[in-house]
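User: My advisor asked me to double-check a structure prediction for PIR2-like helical domain-containing protein before group meeting. I don't want to rely on an old file, so could you generate it fresh from this sequence?
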Amino acid sequence: MVAAKHPCPSQLADVWLLLSSSLHNVVPLLSDVQPNFPRDILHSFHTLVKETAHFPHPPPDGSLVRPWKLAARCRKHAAKLTYQHSWSLTRVLLDTIHGFYLQALARLPVGYHRNLLDAGHCYGPFDPVWNIIVNTIWYQATFPPLSQQDELDIVGTLCLMRIEARSFYGLVSFLCTCYQDLDTDQAIRFLLDTALNLSATKHCSSVKEEQEAYRAAAIAAWHPRPDAQAGFLSSLKAMLVAPHVLSLLQDGGQYQLSSQCVHQLLTLLCSEYHSIVGVPTHQQRPAPVSERQFHFTMSEGRKQRRAHRRISAKVKAALRRYEKQNTVLTTAKARV
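Assistant: Sure, here is a fresh prediction for PIR2-like helical domain-containing protein from the sequence you gave:
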């Protein structure tokens, strides 16, 4: 109370000690309060003051041991309140996912960033960063683009947020499919407690059940090839115990993957996937769209490309200034 600069710290501390020692009488008074209605809050406050007037006073020494022991025993009698922090936990989970994507971007070599934005989801049998890398490399090798695409020199925040949100939906859908009695709030809590580690899920007893869970995740995450990804991820279970795969994942370290490491990983992934589902069929060209939709899409694309070039120019200019400053500092130190 003193640290919070409350005007009456001693009196407020006595009130909280009084309430905590009589929690079994206080909780029923607050369980029906609607926080969006000020009148209900004011009425409940006056009722609380009247009802707590005859409660026994806290011990004179101000000890918290007895009140909190009483409160702990009364928890089983507390009314169940509706969970009201879903949005806050969702933001925390999305921020956690964002951190994993930044690590994956730093480790992927040039040429894979565009496919990361398309199909580099963070769910799978490995840790989140490796799931992003594995999904990205596999998708680019299995379903190469139909036409030549320019390399991305930067990754826009909105594009990254889109794949992060899709991964979020995929993770929650995977858990809710594995655990039929699990709701969204509980799934979010599970993901936060396990740092997005789906290997902690033990409910999928067979490869078929696991494949159905991955298919639900791929559909919820808007994967371009949900059936193919579900078959691929469910086929990787045997790779987790292979010593050469474990050594490859450990040798990756925290640095950017070399071309040799990517080639070895790609060979292992494709061989394992093809041995189970066979050679994938060729991609079909997209269905034709209306002229109006085509021009609208092209117009939006031009706007995004202009913003992309503007941001890219600013980033490159900042990097040049940074390199110039480092050169000046290095030269000055050499002279000294």
